[in-house]
Amino acid sequence: MEPRIHEIPPEKVRGIFEELERYGMVNIEVENLASLFDDMLDSTEERLRYAREKLEEGNVDKAVLVVKDGRGILVVKIENVVEIRAELEDYGRLMRDWNIGER
């Protein structure tokens, strides 16, 4: 199955992350090229809190929801330095709630 990529307007990303747990977040990864701090975060809760901090501090360059093989992965790039990847079980609900579709 080919992946489907759904673009998300940057102005919606902060709101989505405020409610991310509603969509059955399975895992979240944060990669910050300017810091090693992200490597020291052990729990999902710590990584989510860190991701939310980075979203508040910086500007979202690009956000997409990649759907493949029944999985939804929200990918967010912040100022080409931070990349957040959150795997969601209920990505369909996220798409309905936030009016996200293929472009």
TrEMBL record:
This is Uncharacterized protein. It comes from Thermococcus siculi.
